[in-house]
Amino acid sequence: MGCTVSQEDKAAAERSKMIDRNLREDGEKAAKEVKLLLLGAGESGKSTIVKQMKIIHEDGYSEEECKQYRAVVYSNTIQSIMAIIKAMSNLKIEYEDSARADDARQLFALAGAAEEQGILPDDLANVVTRLWADGGVQGCFTRAREYQLNDSAAKMTMQTIEIIISS
């Protein structure tokens, strides 16, 4: 029992120094971080701002993130056109082309599996394209304030379909 420090005490002191160093480094890193609180109503564009900042100030999206977002875009497209079709019956709006009624039935038949798998097969994309081109569907879309439809529905639906058809 001398006056020297034991091995355990030396190891504890070394661990303590390492913890202190890590805390200091984390503190310095946190001091350089900027946090931004985005407030706004639903569908006001908060997540869009975050996504744009990521594209501009970081390296954009990885291939895996693109695949994840693709499924979300497909799902939103399907849900938007389905909301319009459902609203047509509530608002008593007819299709300009009666063949679109068959397309609407096909849309509802194919939509569940496509959303579940995160894909938009060609046959479903063609159905959505034909429905979107119908004057009755367009008329219903212009009355979107009378039913629940995302603000981005029109732009997203058409851009998605055009991209799918061109690829």
UniProtKB/TrEMBL annotation:
One MF term in the entry's GO annotations: metal ion binding
Residues that, per the record, bind Mg(2+): S47
Protein's GO biological process: adenylate cyclase-inhibiting G protein-coupled receptor signaling pathway; G protein-coupled adenosine receptor signaling pathway; gamma-aminobutyric acid signaling pathway
Xref: InterPro entries: Gprotein_alpha_su, GproteinA_insert, P-loop_NTPase
Binding site for GTP: E43, S44, G45, K46, S47, T48, D151, S152
Coiled coil regions in record: none
Keywords assigned by UniProt, alphabetized: GTP-binding, Lipoprotein, Magnesium, Metal-binding, Myristate, Nucleotide-binding, Palmitate, Transducer
GO CC term (a single one): heterotrimeric G-protein complex
Similarity field: Belongs to the G-alpha family. G(i/o/t/z) subfamily.
Family annotation (PANTHER family): GTP-BINDING PROTEIN ALPHA SUBUNIT, GUANINE NUCLEOTIDE-BINDING PROTEIN G(I) SUBUNIT ALPHA-2
Protein name: G protein subunit alpha i2
Species per Swiss-Prot/TrEMBL record: Sinocyclocheilus rhinocerous
